[in-house]
Design goal:
By secondary structure, the protein is an all-beta fold. Helix content is 0%, strand content 53%. Strands 1, 2, 3, 4, 5, 6, 7, 8 and 9 form a 9-stranded mixed beta sheet that branches.
Length: 116
């Protein structure tokens, strides 16, 4: 459910890709949604994957897309969250709140089992 107030709306996550990456981190995740902010910068946006910071790639992000680079983690899976606190001059309303993914991102530790 999207909770709107008079001049404020929260970010919404529809999907993200890829859905997994290595435990070493460094995977660029593309998050698609609404109200992700018209100026995605670290001062106004906090992206987390399984509770770990996902560093915003500012030049690759826009109103309906955020790109972030994962931090290292143990083998596990968890939600992607986007927290935005932004006064939007372009849109005429404030984007404020946290959006949650419905799917999990999985940190994997791939193992070589054979070489042929």
């Amino acid at each position: 459910d999207i909770l709107w107030s008079r001049d404020t709306c929260p970010p919404v996550i529809y999907e993200f890709t890829p859905v997994s990456g290595p435990i070493e981190g460094g995977t660029n995740i593309t998050i698609l949604g609404d109200n992700l902010g018209d100026m995605a910068v670290a001062d106004t946006h906090i992206v987390r994957v399984r509770g770990h910071e996902c560093t915003l790639v500012e030049h690759a992000s826009d109103l309906n897309k955020l790109v972030c680079r994962t931090s290292p983690s143990e083998v596990a899976e968890g939600l992607v969250t986007v927290e935005v606190q932004e006064e939007s001059g372009v849109l005429g309303y404030t984007i404020s709140g946290t959006g949650y993914s419905t799917l999990h991102f999985s940190y994997m530790d791939p193992q070589v089992t054979s070489i042929s």
